[in-house]
Fold this sequence. Notes:
The chain has one domain. Helices cover 90% and strands 0% of the residues. It contains three helices and no strands. The protein has helices at 2-12, 16-48, 51-68. The radius of gyration is 23 Å and the shape is elongated. This is ERMES regulator 1.
Amino acid sequence: MIINSIRRIFSSFRTEEEERYYSRTAFFNLLGFLGSCVLFSFVAQRLSKHPREIAQIARANALIKAISN
């Protein structure tokens, strides 16, 4: 109930168009966040199937850093 009251107070200071803009922006931010969660989850699943490759990549990166220093 308190959240609805606070939202009503803030929305009373905005026009209808501004309210729609903020609502759309929040919705697309939510979609972007959920999409990135799905993407990271998919990548993590793919990488966890090949742990040797991850270790080899980590070793190669460490070797490259050691050589460049």
